[in-house]
Specification:
Blueprint: E1 13-24, E2 29-41, E3 46-50, H1 57-64, E4 72-77, H2 85-89, E5 91-94, H3 106-116, H4 121-135, H5 150-161, E6 168-172, H6 180-195, E7 199-204, H7 207-213, E8 216-221, E9 224-230, H8 231-235, H9 251-262, H10 280-289
The structure holds adenosine-5'-diphosphate and magnesium ion (MG).
Length: 302
């Protein structure tokens, strides 16, 4: 029998026992910011790093970007050391609190970062058009960044991170401080990037937002990864089955249904009837967007 020997593509991210300790000299103690992290992210995945403040999310991203040096363990990006030029070319980064020049407009900002990355001429012009379109910032092209909302700043930050067309994006708290509508736009953008085949690793402490975009998540606590898996596997209750009936049922109908299901061998007394809930966020977005004169400060006017 013939066997094909096609090598598997390298993982987008791999860490083995990755550890970062900071000496606290004045206390003669050591702070363990990240403790023996083993992580694998496949190409094309959207991966969420979750955890409270100080749990090691930003430390993980900084190590994967080669911005800080590990105390122990290893990190690989597309199989390469993160600090190598080859790896850097394939990686884009949106920091937690990006600092931009407030007096530059959207176009000028992208031009500036494009030149820093060695993109010039017609190629840069074309790239700016594409990115402004992708992040929906037509209304910010000629406005100085000091007049941007927080959501617009995060989106120009995302465009900046994409200027050299990287394959992998690290986003540190991309929706922190952004209102729900602006956050939904950033979430949609992450989904667009996934469709384009990019790998996205992002951190957040806003759980619902992660739920809507991430394929897999890891939960951190005090520098340790304490839980990891696909959202499907983590959030599915295997011991139950939910049947959705698109109508209200009166008590008599419920009783008949209970008897009917009971015939399949299920204990009738354990069958519960509940009404599905919207999340508060879904309700909010639905309500705000349904207003006839609704114009988002964050979205371009038609
Ligand atoms: N340069 C540093 N010096 C000392 N401690 C640091 C430094 N950077 C981060 N830490 C500490 O490491 C821990 C993890 O931080 P961080 O990765 O930024 O957490 P998160 O992004 O999850 O909020 C925190 O306790 C933080 O105070
Ligand atoms: Mg952080």
């Amino acid at each position: 029998m013939e066997t094909s020997t096609v090598a598997a593509p390298p993982l987008a991210v791999e860490t083995i026992g990755l550890t970062k300790r900071y000496p606290l000299t004045w206390k003669r103690k050591v702070l363990v910011a990240l403790d023996g992290l083993n992580l694998q992210v496949k190409q094309g995945e959207v991966f969420g790093l979750l955890g409270p403040n100080g749990s090691g999310k930003s430390t993980t991203l900084k190590l994967l970007l080669g911005l800080i040096v590990a105390t122990e363990g290893e990190a690989r990006v597309f199989g390469l050391p993160p600090e190598s030029l080859e790896a850097r070319r394939r990686v884009g980064f949106l920091p937690e609190n990006p600092y931009f020049y407030a007096f530059l407009n959207g176009d000028e900002t992208l031009r500036f970062y494009g030149k820093l990355c060695g993109v010039t001429g017609d190629k840069l012009d074309k790239r700016i058009e594409e990115l402004i379109d992708l992040v929906g910032l037509q209304n910010g092209r000629e406005r100085p960044l000091r007049s941007y909302s927080k959501g617009m700043l995060q989106r120009i930050g995302l465009a900046q991170a994409l200027i050299h067309d990287p394959d992998l994006l690290f986003l540190d708290e991309p929706t922190a401080g952004v209102d729900p509508l602006g956050s939904a736009q950033i979430r949609d953008l992450i989904l667009k990037l996934k469709k384009m085949g990019k790998t996205v690793v992002f951190s957040s402490h806003l759980l619902e937002q992660v739920q809507e975009v991430a394929d897999r998540v890891a939960i951190f606590s005090l520098g340790k990864k304490v839980l990891e898996g696909s959202l499907e596997s983590l959030l599915t209750e295997n011991q139950s089955t939910q049947v959705l009936i698109p109508a209200e049922m009166n008590p008599e109908q419920q009783e008949r249904l209970r008897k009917f299901i009971g015939q399949t061998g299920v204990n009738e007394s354990e069958i519960r009837f509940t009404r599905p809930h919207l999340s508060l966020e879904q309700l909010y977005l639905r309500t705000v967007q349904a207003q006839p004169d609704f114009v988002s400060k964050d979205s371009p006017r038609p």
